[in-house]
Structure formats: structure tokens, C-alpha cells
Amino acid sequence: MPDPITATLKNYRALPKVELHRHLEGTLRLDTMLDIAGQHGITIPADILRLSTLVQMQEEENFSFQTFLSKFNTLRLFYRSPEVIHRITREAIEDAAKDNVKYMELRFTPVALSRAERFPLHDVMDWVITSAQEAAQKYGVIVKLIASVNRHESHELAEQVAWLAAEHKSRGIVAMDLAGNEAEFKSEPFYGVFKEARQAGLHVTIHAGEWGPAANVREAIEELGAERIGHGVRILEDDYVTQLAKERGTAFEVCVTSNYQSGVVPALGLHPLPAMLERGLNITLNTDDPSISRITLSHEYHIACDNLGFSEDTLKQRILAAAQAAFLPDAERERLIGRLKQDLKL
């Protein structure tokens, strides 16, 4: 008799998916990391289980943003060559395709990818773009890219990334993202950078209201020009900000498992996703860092339905909502929505 969870996941895998919030740096396969370590002499545990404790969340760990972010300290050791960056980009898109993701906006942090070997940011961006284009064609996924910068980095570095992102718009970079430690670093130093990015024709998505208060969501919308909010799960703490986001139609890129593992919510079943939807907020489902969290987007769909009470129809409507929030020209967005409606039998 088949395992019921596996059988259920198989049903969710069959659904066509849209992913708006997935970090390239959080998608590395464990066996790929072992290969890279062997090729480049990186000192790490020699077996997958011990390596997993350094780069993936474990059930016995303290679920906090400090623990979650600590995984990236090890992950940053692996970006040692153009070939590595090509490989992890290709594999991220291949893994999404295996999960029946039809459209994905993959965000990457050029500064993080460049740091281990001090690669020029321009080269890093070119490697990711080239690999993403090739993999998208090979695996039949529509892929757009989002250039991400971190709050703890300087605004001068962010300006360089924004300038390069604008320069590469014609090659699939569609937006800028501000990420990183929201609890300890402000976004105010980046106001000018994101204003310039918007003027250059880039879309804007901002991590806010995850490890910081609802006021950060208001700031993201009003000061940084965010069209979408990464996470935003603390928004219900403030009625004014909730109403603002509802009136603007701001899309929320919610990542349920990540929110649990990073200590934002105390249990999966207590996630505010249903309450956000009930308040009329425009929510979408995403993975954040599938390798760190040891999940796929199918897992997130499973949790939304089995832990949080979503009906199949609600889930399908959220898939369409994600497509509607995609950073695409109108005609391309309508084609994507039409294809999804057909596949979802809506």
C-alpha cells in the first residue's frame, strides 16, 4: 500500500506551479557540494549526513533567524569557479522543472557569489544569466532573474548591483530585491538605490515583515516602492499597513516552512497565511531556500492544504495569483495565466 504522504505529494507535484521567491544560494544539492569540496579542497565533513547539519535546518535545532542565516556562512564557501556557478544555476532550474514549476523568478545575490574568489560582479551576473537561459530552454521552464542585495552590505555595493541589473534587463533580469537580516539592519540607506532601480525600469520586491515589524512592510511599499513583499507575515500586527497592502494589491511571497524554521511562527499549523487571505491580502506560496529547508514547492502546497486548511480551489487560485504578480510584460503574463488555467482545468 503506498505511503499516504508520498501519494499526496505526487498529487501536488502534478499541479503546474509558479515560484516567485527562491534564492539561488539556498538551492545547492548536497552531492553537488561534496563534489565542489573535493575539486577545490574545501574542508567540510566527508559524508552527506554531517554536511547536512551545516547547510540544512535540522529538527533538533533552535528555530531562529540566527540559526537559519548561519547556514549561508557555510554555503558561501562553495562559489569557487565560473563552472560552479553555472552548475548550481542549472541544477536549481532542473530541480524546479522536476517539481512541475512552469514559471520561476530565481533571485541571486551577486555579492555573495563573488566573495569567495573575489570575482567581478559583472562576471558573476553574466554566468548566472547565461546558465539560466540555457537551463530554462533545456528544461522547459520560463525563468526570470532578480538581483538581490543584503541589508548588512554597503549601499555602494547595492548601487553597483542595481546598475548592472539595469544593464542586463534585456537578458532576463526583471527586478531588484533587498534581503538579509531585517531584525538588525535598516533599509533606509537603500532608499536612493531602489529609486534609481525603479527609474531604470526594474521591478522591486523587498523582504519585510518577516523578522521585523509590520512597519517595515509600510516602509517597503511607501519608501522603497515595493510591488511585492518577501514574506510579510507580521503585517497583521498593524491594521493600517494591512489595509494599505490590500488597497495597493501588493503581492506577498509567503514561504511557510521557512517562516517556521526561522522562528517567525511557532508551529506550521499556526502560520498566519489563512488569516492573511481572510483579510483580503494577495498571498502566493513559495519555497525561499528549498535546500536549506529540505522542501519543494509541492511540499509547501501540501502544508497549505493539509496543515492550514486550503481547499484545492483556493490553492489553484493562489497559483494564478502568483502568475498575475509575475514581473512580466502584460502580454507574456496573460499567456502564462491562460496556459495555467488550461492546465489547472479552470
Word description of this protein:
- The chain is an alpha/beta fold.
- It has a single domain (4-339), classed as TIM Barrel.
- The chain has 17 helices and 8 strands.
- The protein has helices spanning 4-13, 30-40, 48-55, 65-75, 82-98, 110-115, 121-139, 155-167, 191-199, 215-222, 239-248, 256-261, 273-278, 290-293, 297-306, 312-324, 330-344; strands spanning 17-23, 101-108, 142-150, 173-179, 203-208, 228-231, 251-254, 282-285.
- An 8-stranded parallel beta sheet has the order 1-2-3-4-5-6-7-8, with helices on both faces.
- The longest helix is centred in the middle third of the chain and has 19 residues, at 121-139.
- It is globular, with a radius of gyration of 19 Å.
What distinguishing features does this structure have?
346 residues; TIM Barrel; alpha/beta; 51% helix; 14% strand; eight-stranded parallel sheet
Give the helix/strand layout.
Layout (H helix, E strand, L loop, with lengths): L3 H10 L3 E7 L6 H11 L7 H8 L9 H11 L6 H17 L2 E8 L1 H6 L5 H19 L2 E9 L4 H13 L5 E7 L11 H9 L3 E6 L6 H8 L5 E4 L7 H10 L2 E4 L1 H6 L11 H6 L3 E4 L4 H4 L3 H10 L5 H13 L5 H15 L2
Parallel strand pairs: 1-2, 2-3, 3-4, 4-5, 5-6, 6-7, 7-8
